[in-house]
Design goal:
single chain, mainly alpha, two-stranded antiparallel sheet, 13 helices, 4 strands, 5% strand, globular
């Protein structure tokens, strides 16, 4: 056999040997030589990007990070936070990405769910305290139009008597309040829920760090870093959004069980919050319950304030 023939035969054998191509493959992303399925320099897969195949593998593989993360998130409170702090992170989805994906899905579902916007109507009485009532937007809340009155005139009449501000910076706030009130009346509040649900996720990015700061005051001995509290709130809020999403879907499929599902979800969220604090901070039951009570009060007050501010901001940006 000639040298050229031997060389051709050797090349043919080399191309038939499994892994020979992988040994000489180059990463299409960074150009580094790759010897396996993934590039050691940047982590990209070597094989061509078949989206359908790749997505199917990621979603159905028994060891997929997605299913492992969701299972731990739903049924093992505090576990993902403890694993992340211990350095065991490769097996699970990153906390920020997990929170973002689940919160986006939750608010998309919430925006697609039919709901009736409400307004608090305060009626001043001649004798006795003022009367407040929660009513749906529309003629019942803003009053009926007078004969021959246009929609714009009706909005101006309603807002001239109800949208009055006498606090600081009145010269700037009062005209903006009148304009916002007029848009609200003309629209009958139909666009307000959409704007509100668009602003709430943004407000949560300020709310969660605020909660983590409050947790530092309760867990200053032994010392815990700020990121530990923030990770716990990211995981716990991702859990709440996911649970509410699943409960909402179950309620839509089984309307007679809506009351039971709501009650069960509420109790499970309370137990989950308590147990996650026990797992992450490893303190006693009584001490954890006391801190959970303080945290719940702070959460209720600050959460109500946040929602009120988001509501006002949403009205002004209609």
């Amino acid at each position: 056999m000639s040298a050229a023939a031997a060389s051709d035969a050797g090349a043919a054998v080399a191309t038939d040997v499994p892994g020979a191509r992988a040994a000489s493959a180059q990463c299409e992303n960074c150009g580094a030589v790759v010897s396996g399925r993934y590039c050691a320099a940047c982590g990209q897969r070597v094989e061509p990007p078949h989206f359908t195949k790749t997505a199917t593998e990621d979603l159905t593989h028994a060891d997929s990070r997605l299913w492992r993360t969701l299972g731990a998130l739903l049924f093992r409170p505090g576990y993902l936070t403890r694993e992340f702090l211990a350095g065991r992170r490769a097996r699970y989805l990153p906390p920020v990405r997990l929170y973002l994906v689940i919160s986006v899905l939750f608010f998309l579902w919430a925006s697609a769910t039919p709901h009736q916007p409400m307004v608090i109507q305060i009626t001043e009485l001649d004798h006795g305290p003022a009367h407040a009532a929660l009513k749906p937007f529309g003629e019942e809340a803003f009053g009926k139009r007078l004969p021959g009155e246009s929609a714009e005139q009706h909005a101006e009449r309603v807002c001239s008597s109800s949208a009055n501000y006498g606090g600081p910076w009145r010269a700037r706030i009062q005209p903006a309040a009148r304009r916002a009130c007029a848009r609200l009346v003309l629209d009958n509040g139909r666009s307000l829920p959409e704007v509100f649900l668009h602003n709430v996720p943004r407000a949560m990015f300020l709310f969660l760090p605020l909660l983590a700061g409050a947790m530092m005051l309760m867990y200053w001995r032994p010392r815990h870093y700020y990121v530990e509290h923030l990770l716990l709130f990211l995981h716990n809020h991702a859990f709440v959004f996911l649970l509410l999403l699943l409960a909402g879907l179950a309620t839509a499929l089984l309307p007679p069980l809506s009351g039971w599902l709501t009650g069960a979800a509420t109790l499970y969220i309370a137990w989950y919050a308590y147990h996650s604090m026990r797992v992450v901070y490893e303190q006693g039951r009584v001490l954890t319950l006391g801190k959970l009570a303080v945290l719940s009060f702070f959460y209720l007050v600050s959460g109500s304030l946040m929602l009120a501010l988001v509501s006002v901001y949403s009205v002004f940006t209609l």
